[in-house]
Write a structure and sequence with these properties.
The protein is of the alpha/beta class. Helices cover 40% and strands 13% of the residues. It is built from 13 helices and ten strands. Helix 5 runs parallel beside helix 6 and helix 8 runs antiparallel to helix 11.
Length: 340
């Protein structure tokens, strides 16, 4: 693998990130500790140095396993974890983005991960109750204490991230370097606001569920109807639109002689402003297959086919402003002559 810079920082991270939500079996699915080690080894041996976990994953077991795996070479690993989601039922302060939950979550994450610091600490989701300035100041405090090096945010409206990065810049606080969003060929709605916002602030975009929860691997294709029966009837994942997209991915994959998963990830890696997909699985073979995507090259025609079959309506104001009549008015019929 090659390496990319994290946002506007100088931190060098691998072009794929290993997600570890499947590390542990507490949720009734996932991987054993032995298989987790095999996935980790496959990733690191391929040049990967970027690991993503969260305090909530498998009730904390994911962090414990990750901590054991990186212990012998902690300094070479760029470690990301998250806070926000509950770690205890019945207590309102064991979840959320407020200072108390952040501090106690960070304390327990450091213990489980057996480390003194986190390279990238994420707000896992917006809670709509914590003031942006409280959150930002609390994050800046743990950065100044050396417990966190950089901060990121996930699953939050674009206008809030914009507001907070602007506040951070004005006050000299740490701003967000990374943005996690669900983004794939079957989920392209972040193109409306989140991706342009990230580009404007120089943030690294890290798509989670880049294979559409398995839809883009081909396992739900017509050749494997038994897989469809395992998914709840009416699942949004198995809509007619998504299955058409999956069929297009399979067709391109056959042309290239690679797997559908590699094809879907290659499309992501070539999207403007999309930097580092978060890969994962329950078997080392799945991680190895995903890593192969960095060598896949799609032709312009193949990219166009995938873009067309997965296209979404951008909605207002995007479609309105991009209409030819509006462009004529905005640019005085000189749009095609303006070099941007």
């Amino acid at each position: 693998m090659n390496y990319r810079l994290l946002g506007n920082t100088g931190l060098r991270v691998s072009e794929l990130c290993l997600g570890t939500m499947t590390f542990g079996e507490e949720w009734g699915w996932g991987a054993s500790q032995q298989e987790c080690k095999a996935m980790y080894d496959a990733f690191v041996n391929a040049g990967g140095n970027f690991i993503d976990t969260a305090n909530r994953y498998t009730e904390g077991t994911s962090e414990k396993i990750v901590g054991e795996l990186i212990a012998h070479d902690r300094e070479s690993i760029v470690l990301a974890t998250k806070f926000t989601l509950k770690m205890k039922d019945g207590d309102p302060n064991w979840s959320g983005n407020h200072r108390k939950n952040m501090i106690q979550s960070l304390h327990h994450s450091l213990k489980r991960l057996k480390t003194d610091y986190i390279d990238l600490y994420y707000v896992h989701a917006w809670d709509f109750t914590t003031r942006p300035d409280e959150l930002l100041r609390s994050l800046d405090d743990v950065v100044r204490q050396g417990k966190v090096l950089h901060i990121g945010i996930s699953d939050t409206p674009a206008w809030l991230v914009s507001q907070m990065n602007t506040i951070a810049e004005l006050r000299g606080w740490t701003s967000f370097a990374g943005l996690q969003v669900e983004y794939s060929l079957v989920e392209r709605t972040p193109e409306r606001e989140l991706l342009p916002m990230a580009r404007a602030f120089g943030m690294t975009v890290l798509p989670w569920s880049p294979l559409g929860a398995g839809v883009l691997t081909g396992k739900f294709s017509g050749s494997m109807p038994q897989e469809k029966s395992r998914v709840k009837e009416g699942s949004r994942r198995l809509s007619e639109r998504n299955l058409r997209i999956a069929d297009a991915v399979i067709a391109v994959a056959k042309e290239l002689g690679v797997s559908p998963a590699q094809t879907a990830l290659a499309w992501l890696l070539h999207q403007p402003g999309v930097n580092i997909p978060i890969i994962g699985g329950t078997k080392a073979s799945q991680v190895t297959d995903n890593i192969g995507s960095v060598s896949v090259r799609l032709s312009e025609e193949q990219r166009k086919r995938l873009n067309d079959v997965s296209a979404i309506e951008m909605g207002f104001p995007h479609d309105f402003l991009n209409a030819s009549a509006m462009r004529d008015i905005i640019y005085g019929k000189t749009y095609h002559r303006i070099i941007k």
